[in-house]
Amino acid sequence: MLNDVGNFDGDHTAVTFETAFAGRPAYANLSDSAEQPVPQPGVRPFFFNGTQKPLFGAYYEPFAGRHAGLPVLICPATGHEYVRCYNTIRKLCGRLAQSGFGVLKFDYCGLGDSYGDGSEADVPEFRENIRAAAAELARRSGNSEITLVGLRFGATLAAGVRFEGVTARNLVLWDPVVESAAYLASLRELHQACLVDSIRYRKLQPHRTTETELLGFRYPAGLQASMSQLSLLNKPFPYNNCYLLSSVQSPAGDALIQSLSRNTRGRFTHEFVQESAGWDDVRQVESALAANRAVAAISAKIAGGFV
Predict the structure, then answer these.
(1) Domain contains 255
(2) Which domain does 15 fall in, by range?
(3) DSSP the chain
(4) Number of domains in the chain
(5) Looking at the whole model, is its pTM more than 0.85?
(6) Is 209 a domain residue?
(7) Residue 183 domain-assigned?
(8) What pLDDT sits at residue 17?
(9) Low-confidence stretches of the chain (pLDDT beneath 50)
(10) In a domain, 36, yes or no
(11) What is the reported pLDDT for 37?
């Protein structure tokens, strides 16, 4: 794992995945023009959720004097998409903090620097991680009302979480997984495609298939079973604002737009950005996500009060 040394709250120091991406500022200007240095708010990496199941998080303090609105919890993607999206998530956190929002991003169990090796991961555990992160964000920001931002399967997880002591007022769904059973099937197809990719292997490896590994990450039977039950369609969305950002047009996406239009309690808005992420492209399985337009759109929507 790529890593470096990061300073933690208190006197602790630790080697973390987070600091592997510290070479490029998370707060850089994300316009299409050349990036210009900007003042950087503080980023505080830390562990939370007790000593038995510690989760790693990084809290981005709002830029001094710019407390703009509700703090934001980022629910990242999972599996290989977690790695693909890592630096883009950092950019989004930095941009929101620069606009005056406190932001917390965290690692699920078995990913990044959080506890576990992935063998005990399942949907209920991931959602417990989200609840713990929301409580930590409320504690650090002093505000029990938050905005949730979920990317890919992280969006699917976040949309179904019920909180105690914390209220999610707004939800941002960024290229969400609409039907998780179909998503698992697409991951299996990508995994098989990688094994017979002559660019990756001089000698093809179609026999190197297991039931619990997909694209280099563990997907234990319990996780696959719990994932296969999830769908975003025809579910209540009890948020003041629900914002869907899409970079892919598909029948599942169209169905989600119609479902959210009917089932969101408050305001629902949808935006399409012409910025292909290549989620189903075997050539981009190991490519870092470049999503400057999506980051700019989400930041502007949150900063503008979802209007």
Answers:
(1) yes
(2) 4-177+231-303
(3) ---EEEE-STT-EEEESGGGGTTS-TT---SSS---------EEEEEESTTTS-EEEEEEPPPTT---SS-EEEE---HHHHHHTHHHHHHHHHHHHHTT--EEEE--TTSTTSSS-STT--HHHHHHHHHHHHHHHHHHHT-SEEEEEEETHHHHHHHT---SS-EEEEEEEES--SBHHHHHHHHHHHHHHHHT-TTT-SS--TT---SSEETTEE--HHHHHHHTT-B-TT--B--SEEEEEESS--HHHHHHHHHHHHHBSSEEEEEE-S----TT-GGGTTSPP--HHHHHHHHHHHHTTT-
(4) 1
(5) yes
(6) no
(7) no
(8) 53
(9) 1-15, 20-39
(10) yes
(11) 42
